[in-house]
Amino acid sequence: MSDLSTSNNQLSASVVAEEKRLLNTRLGLLAPGILTIFFVGIMPLSVVLIYSFLEPGDFGGVSWVVSFDAYVQLLFEEDIFDETLSFTTDYLEIFFRSVSLGLFTTIACLLVGFPTAYFIATQPPARRNAWLFLITIPFWTNLLIRTYAMLLILRDQGIINLGLIEIGLIDRPIPMLYTDFAVCLGLVYAYLPFMVLPIFASLEKLDFRLVEASYDLYATRFKVLKRIIVPLAKPGIAAGCILVMIPSLGAFITPALLGGGKSLMIGNLIELQFGQARNWPFGSAIALVLMVLVMLSLMAYLRYGQKKGVPGHG
Amino acid sequence: MVDVTAAARKKVKDIDLKHQPGFSQIAWFCIAVLYAPIAVLVLFSFNENRSVTIWTQFSLDWYVKAWNNEGIQHAALVSLEVALVAMLLSTIMATMAALVTTRTAPYRGMNVAVAVINQPLMVPEVVTAVATLIFFAIIKQLTGISGIGYLIAAHTAFCVPFAYMPIRARLEDMDLSLEQAAADLYAPPFKVFRRVTLPLLMPGILAGAMLAFIVSLDDVIITLFVAGPGETTLPLYILGQIRRGVTPEINAVSTVFVGISVVLVSFIFLSGKDKK
Fold it and tell me: Tell me: the pLDDT tens digits for B106-133?
């Protein structure tokens, strides 16, 4: 009896030792990655939060005085002479432009991306892989270079304008660069693969017997699309939309190259505050507003997007 | 005859239940949109003329000029240095983290650990960039240390989740039976890892390393904020030149850049297909 209990004790002791070893292994292997991201990713974000409540220093940086000026500045303009505040829509306009360009981009990507993903998903396997490869390549190609390529063809001396002049449709180049249109086109071009790939992933798993069944029940092609295919692809559509919306909201290179000074987005406004304007607290405050916008889109996604779509009845 | 085949084809399409009218045209349009601008860029990098719009004659002049350009040479070396070190560090960290976050019953803190690893993907890059700028400015002021280490640290951090993805995916495809067999035959844990787990995991690690390399090589925004003087990477150099004006020299450098990405991605794509 006593033998049994000692061996039991030994057993539990060795189990405890084993668990401790496992814990140490886990901690040891996780530590380098977690610590790096904590110090270079998470800590800096909390510093941004602190900085947004300080006053700007004279030559960049901050002076350690608590103030809410950075947030007030988002909505109000201070008169240089009598220091009274008046409501201004300058920055609201840029926020509004960013959100609406983001939405336009998402919708355009969806309209082109869904049919493309569906087409790829219905191809025979060999051809399907070739198509996926073609969509993946731009996904991993340098965004700056792709945006520059877009700039090349949209310019006044670009291939589109020169081509149209050559065939006599127009006699003067249509100014396309430095407009909201150019930025939106650039964003669609940049993030289209983000829409196609997740929609493809959910359409790939689609059970086409459901499509057959609905045709048997005299559904039209459009009805099958609307009632069967789209609802079943909903998780992919939601993932694609969020993957396009988030980087569009925070876009920097695309509006910087294609929008110029005329079509600023939030990303450029932030950069301005850390560059020419030298107002770090204001830049921090804008960065946090951008974070909030991104969080809101993510929450909308978690709320509505992840529910599994169920084909409607009736 | 032509009419007959066209009619027959139409009939086949009517029978093909998966078909939706217009979708194939949209798919081709999608490919055209994705590739046309890059095609123009590549084409005009071989143009003899200075113009980036009017084709005159084939020439490699701009490649020679770019190759001999000291600014480009220096930028390319900085880019390579940063990308190689960041790739190495992030791949090691990602492999270690993936080993203890897959093929195990969920334990306390595991989801938090995975969330932290994916954190760089959740925050807009421009926000990470300014946050890192501020934070590094404070550290530089406190310690007085400067140098390329900051840039490498920033790159390593955002490369970790990219390296982590394929390694984790590969691990989840491997079952534990081989490792358990090795342990049954009295192999000590490290030997099991070195002789069984690591060789099986290698394709995932290679894919992860290549993704990390591409992501680091391509980065513009974080580098723009964090890089100090003399730390101009190739994308920063290209950005500076674009802001000054369009030159075929930049087209040549860009074409080489695109070429590198295409080769690496093809490699990842093909190696990923083998295992299925």
Answer: 888 888 999 999 888 888 999 999 999 9
pLDDT tens digit sequence for A36-63: 999 988 999 999 999 999 988 877 677 7
DSSP string, A122-155: TS-HHHHHHHHHHHHHHHTS-HHHHHHHHHHHHS
Which DSSP string do the residues of A41-86 spell out, in sequence order? IIHHHHHHHHHTTSEEPBTBSEES----HHHHHHHEEE-TTT--EE
Nearest residue in A to B265, CA atom: A137
CATH of domain B62-274: 1.10.3720.10
SS3 label, residue B131 = helix
B38 lies within 8 A of chain A by CB: yes
The total number of residues shown for chain B amounts to 276
Residue type, A26: R
ipTM attached to this prediction? 0.85
Instruction: Give dist(CA A159, CA A166) in Å, integer.
Output: 10
pTM for the whole structure: 0.86
Select the residue from B45, B134, B164, B168 to test the A interface by mutation, using most A Cβ atoms within 10 A.
B134
Domain boundaries, chain A: 90-305
Stretch (H or E) spanning A87: strand A85-87
Interface test with B, best of A145, A151, A218 (most B CBs within 10 A): A145
Non-local CB neighbours of B179 within 8 Å, separated by 6+ positions: B192, B196, B197
B27 contacts A115? CB cut-off 8 A: yes
Look at the domain A90-305 and name its fold: MetI-like fold (1.10.3720)
Question: Using CA atoms, how far apart are residues A239 and A193, in angstroms rounded to an integer?
Answer: 12
From A82's Cα to the closest Cα of chain B, the distance in A is: 33
Chain A CA closest to residue B51: A157
- All structural domains of chain B with their residue ranges: 2-45, 62-274
